[in-house]
Amino acid sequence: MTQIQESTSAGLVKIPTTVSNISYIDGEIGLLEYRGYNIVELARKSRYEEVAFLLIYGYLPAAAELQEFTRQLTAYRELPDELIELLQHFPRDIHPAHALQAAVTMLPGYHALMASEEAIHRPETDAVRLISQMAVLVAALHRIRNGKALVPAHRELSHAQNFLYMLHGERPDPLAASAMETCMILYADQSINNSTFTGRIVASTNASPIMVVTAALSSLSGPLHGGAGERVMKMLDEIGEPENAKKYLDQTLATPGARIMGFGHRVFNTIDPRVQVLNGIIPRLFARLGTTKVLKIVEALEKTVLETLTDKNIHPNVELKSGIIYHRLGIENNFSIPIFAVARITGWMAHWLEERANHKLIRPAQIYQGNRTKSYIPADTR
Length: 382
Fold this sequence. Notes:
Layout: E1 23-26, E2 31-34, E3 37-38, H1 39-45, H2 48-57, H3 63-75, H4 81-88, H5 96-111, H6 117-121, H7 123-145, H8 159-168, H9 174-187, H10 194-203, H11 209-220, H12 228-239, H13 245-253, H14 273-289, H15 293-308, H16 318-328, H17 336-356
Antiparallel strand pairs: 1-2, 2-3
Helix pairs in contact: 1-9, 1-14, 2-17, 3-7, 4-5, 5-7, 5-11, 7-8, 7-17, 8-9, 9-14, 9-17, 10-11, 10-17, 11-17, 12-16, 14-16
């Protein structure tokens, strides 16, 4: 019998599960890299299309390659009429994350109407199509949920610009589009997080990319993962006014097991570099579009938390910052998981391609702690 090391780690903390070339994270110094490129530099200098190409193909594209990649993303900005009709019949009160997962699951039945020979024989094309259609699906669900007519894609806009255009039916403010694009870049991947690991497990079975994404969405929907953003916005609603921040913090700290959402991170033990990037965007965005009470609540809460928990080395996390950006861009609070997926689909596809090339089924061991060698007792004598 194979010997298993009799030790484990709750949540697999610091337990390697795979070898990857996609992204690197060092939580002690606050570093995140995609294919060796610092996320801060990428967020400030590149476009989402470049980052998507980088994650999928492993290198930054030349001008002609980027143009062709952008053309492919643009080409898939449509959904079959049959699928749109299905989306319109979803229950109005279904959670957007559940609606998105159901919609993604249905895509294979309609892809046959749209597939080309290139798509059949090149997995990268499947990846590009899903990256494009994830944004289209989320925009469509947001419109339908608000009783609005769907907006046809705009062929001349970038991926981030077109997403906001399809969401609101008008060309986005340049700064708003830049903020959305930056969030997409920052959320595109983050090493072996829970949803990515889930996707890789499914990918190791040679399942289709659709099923990989469906599984990853299941993981992302949990309140400890992608659902954290929704809980952040709910917390801000509960606080209500900036002057209530201190009272809310004190009550939460006095409640056993309660957490202050929007602070702390499972990996980053210092300032998350993504937070630093968003901190540079938020003042300009709100100055352009108008300051809201939500921003003032966040500022008051952040000040109170840092003053009260100064010895805990606790910092605001990216969900706190991205949440108020999405709020200012007119995105409903309960769409935080689908918006997360619009960005993270690129990382999921990169990991799907990498795992697909491994040809090795993931089958971990366990440490069994239950009873053994018990004798069966007939039912009438128990």
